[in-house]
């Protein structure tokens, strides 16, 4: 009887599983291991519906699915692994991953994506693995760094990326004073992209090869397809290693000059590639016609700004900003304009009134001192002195 009941229970569970499993998909039983669903029919052109709510792993592979709509997996709150690999996906809605709070791994390898909604990673706070291998991504936006702190495995290989934002270097290689807790190592796949041979790639490769680096590259041999200012020329690692963040040195940090005079502000910068210089005053870029710059040799540049006939509006803080592919630096110069201070004349009527008031105060008879005061001030020898002498004693 017990055996019959077990067989009946198994049949009922199988029937429930069959009804909840979408067509063209295969679902695991979920009895001895977490429920998983796999769909790999080339005739499938849309995401399946009525997926088992307790699914932990979902694999949609080699289908004709072309888009992932809003809240596509909302009912799969227990999902931990989502593989959407080698389909025909061209777009992913920014809200596709709503309610996937438990997701640990997301793979979109082998699709036709030209862009990825990085802000959608906010809906997957536990995500650690993100695979975007073999797509058509042509840019990696700077704001992506805001949503990647928890990602420990990121595969961007075999795409069309050319530039690596500096914000990502700050995320992957934080300064010691900005590190919070122990360093968490990250695995990056950046190979097989037409990278521009610039200082960002140079810094990434050199830092990743340093001892105790927080970043491990899947393939450290990043091939540069283009170089700065030239086409098709490969820069060697030795040349790339020369990249240096610019440093700025002003001729003076404080300048004082009279009103109406002429003054020249100067700053010098060094770095590689040779930095360009820009003058900024109160968040406004100074017109290029107002200053000049020259580069006497590679890696060095100086600039001057000429101010003729100084007025008060010329006073303030000027910032000399140097920029190259390795970073940005700037130095402030404070300009003070000294004018002639003029004493303002008091109006004639007001002056007469003040003079009259002053005379009145002077003619006011002195207050009669008390007897005790007189006694303290009088000398015993002049107790019966005449009134004139007594008056002089009161003014002392």
TrEMBL record:
The transmembrane residues are none
Keywords in alphabetical order, please.
Disulfide bond, Leucine-rich repeat, Repeat, Signal
Keyword hit for Signal = yes
Q: Which range is the signal sequence, renumbered to this chain?
A: 1-18
Q: Where is the Ig-like domain?
A: 246-336
Q: Could you tell me where the Polar residues compositional bias lies?
A: 381-396
Region feature Disordered, mapped onto this chain: 346-396
Does this UniProt record's set of keywords contain Repeat? Answer: yes
Checking PROSITE patterns in the record gives: IG_LIKE, LRR
State the name under which the record lists this protein: Ig-like domain-containing protein
């Amino acid at each position: 009887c017990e055996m019959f009941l077990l067989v009946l229970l198994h049949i009922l569970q199988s029937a429930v599983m069959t009804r909840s499993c979408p067509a063209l998909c295969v679902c695991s039983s979920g009895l001895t291991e977490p429920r998983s669903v796999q769909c790999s029919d080339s005739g499938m052109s849309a995401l399946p519906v009525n997926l088992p709510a307790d699914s932990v792993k979902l694999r949609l592979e080699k289908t004709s699915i072309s888009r992932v709509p809003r809240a596509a997996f909302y009912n799969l709150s227990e999902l931990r692994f989502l593989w959407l690999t080698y389909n025909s996906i061209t777009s992913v809605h920014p809200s596709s991953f709503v309610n996937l709070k438990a997701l640990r791994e997301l793979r979109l390898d082998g699709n036709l994506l030209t862009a990825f909604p990085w802000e959608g990673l906010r809906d997957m706070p536990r995500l650690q693995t993100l695979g975007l291998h073999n797509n058509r991504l042509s840019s990696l936006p700077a704001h992506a760094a805001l949503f990647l702190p928890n990602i420990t495995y990121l595969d961007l290989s075999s795409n069309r990326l050319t530039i690596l934002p500096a914000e990502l270097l700050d995320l992957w290689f934080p300064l010691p004073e900005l590190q919070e807790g122990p360093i968490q190592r990250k695995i990056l796949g950046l190979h097989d992209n037409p990278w521009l041979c610039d200082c960002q790639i140079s810094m990434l490769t050199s830092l990743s090869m340093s001892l105790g680096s927080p970043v491990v590259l899947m393939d450290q041999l990043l091939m540069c397809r283009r170089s700065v200012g030239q086409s098709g020329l490969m820069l060697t690692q030795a040349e790339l290693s020369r990249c240096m963040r610019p440093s700025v040195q002003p001729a003076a940090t404080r300048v004082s000059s009279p009103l109406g005079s002429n003054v020249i502000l100067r700053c010098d910068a060094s770095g590689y590639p040779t930095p360009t210089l820009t003058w900024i005053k109160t968040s406004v870029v100074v017109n290029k016609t107002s200053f000049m710059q020259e580069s006497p040799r590679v890696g060095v540049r100086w600039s001057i700004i000429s101010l003729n006939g100084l007025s008060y509006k010329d006073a303030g803080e000027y910032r000399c900003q140097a920029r190259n592919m390795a970073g940005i630096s700037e130095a402030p110069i404070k300009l003070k304009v000294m004018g002639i201070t003029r004493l303002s004349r008091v109006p004639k009527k007001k002056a007469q009134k003040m003079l009259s008031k002053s005379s009145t105060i002077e003619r006011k008879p002195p207050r009669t001192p008390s007897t005790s005061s007189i006694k303290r001030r009088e000398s015993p020898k002049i107790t019966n002195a005449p009134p004139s002498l007594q008056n002089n004693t009161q003014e002392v």
